[in-house]
Amino acid sequence: MSRTARIKLEDGIYHIIFNGVSEIHLYENNRDKNKYMELIKKYETKFHFKVYAYCLMTTHGHLLIDSNGADVSQFMHDVNQSYAQYYNNAHKRNGHKRKGHVFRDRFKSKLVDADSYLLTLSAYIHKNPKDIKKYRNCIEEYKYSSLGVYLGLRKDPFNILDEDYIMQFFNTNVKKARKAYSELVFRCTDKLLKKSAEFQDEKTEYRSERHIIKRSFSPEEILAFLSKYTGMPEWQIVLKNKRCNTKNKALYVFMLKCLCCLEDKDICEILGNITQSRVSTLCSMGIDIVLKDDKYKNIINDFLDSKTS
Question: What distance in Å separates the CA atoms of residue 70 and residue 50, rounded to the nearest whole number?
Fold first, then answer.
């Protein structure tokens, strides 16, 4: 039987569910969960999607994702494929690299088509840790759920979350929004959040709007921007076999992947006389630069701002 085609919209918000195969735990330990969240951060940087909620359990995981103009199938495939490679290398059997599938089938995705569904779905995702004995009465303390971030009990340890968009539906005032959200999450129980009196107020209000990235920019636009941004001439950025321009070429490839939705083979044609393997390597280098170098951490937003100014 053929697979059912996914419903995909460039401005879609999706509930994504993924499960491990029956014979293993998808996450054997916290190191595995940290690795998965690290990959979410890496590909969030690459594709510029948004994460509204997350929860990783031992055998499965939930994500609430705003595709923001990117292809949900592509970036989730990349995340899960990278994790499967990590898992098989990290969990050897009898001294040998593990082989075989890690995820059960492809991930499931459901389009969120109403604000009311979005809010209740986020609460559903955040209630998952109730099935863990240690967290049954304190689900807000579970590190691999974003609930504690929503309620102001901690900052997001993985730096991937955009909670403002959902929370502003409750109230723009942070304290009032957190109170209302905790009541939504715990409505089905006899207890309210035990730390509700300890809400921090590091923000004054929630403000968030959805501005979907239209990923139809031309390579020429991006090259011109990058040349101005870095001070390196366009011709030098794309010049082959020059170590001095590797960093800027990596940023160029990264931006092409993020903002033009180009395949590696398309970028090969743009750069000329370069292999797809090299394109992939340059893109990974570009992601690392954006993640680690404060000078370039806002390069995508700066480019988008330049198009609206």
Answer: 10
Nearest-angstrom CA–CA distance, 280 and 286: 10
Statement to judge: residues 31 and 146 lie in one domain: yes
Q: For the chain, what is the domain count?
A: 2
Q: Is residue 55 exposed (0-12), middle (13-18) or buried (19+ Cβ within 10 Å)?
A: buried
Q: Are strands 13-19 and 108-111 parallel, antiparallel or unpaired?
A: antiparallel
Q: What is the pLDDT along the chain (309 residues), one digit of tens a residue?
A: 344 444 445 678 999 999 998 878 999 999 999 999 999 999 999 999 999 999 999 999 999 999 999 989 999 999 999 999 999 888 877 666 777 788 887 888 889 988 888 998 999 999 999 989 999 989 999 999 999 999 999 999 999 999 999 999 999 999 999 999 998 998 754 343 333 333 444 555 556 667 778 888 999 999 999 999 999 999 999 887 777 789 999 999 999 999 988 889 999 999 988 899 999 999 999 999 999 999 999 999 999 999 887
For residues 112 and 185, state if they share a domain. yes
In a domain, 63, yes or no: yes
Domain that holds residue 99: 13-198
Asked whether residue 35 is domain-assigned, the answer is: yes
Tokens of 237: 């950025």
- Residue 77 domain-assigned (yes or no): yes
pTM above 0.70, yes or no: yes
Give the CATH number of the domain where residue 84 resides. Answer: 3.30.70.1290
Can you tell me whether residue 103 is helix, strand or coil?
A: strand
Q: Are 23 and 103 part of one and the same domain?
A: yes
Nearest Cα residue to 124 out of 65, 62, 174? 62
State the residue for tokens 């490839």: 253
Residue 212 domain flag:
no
Q: Name the token pair of 20.
A: 């491990």
User: How far is the C-alpha of 81 from the C-alpha of 101, rounded, in Å?
Assistant: 10
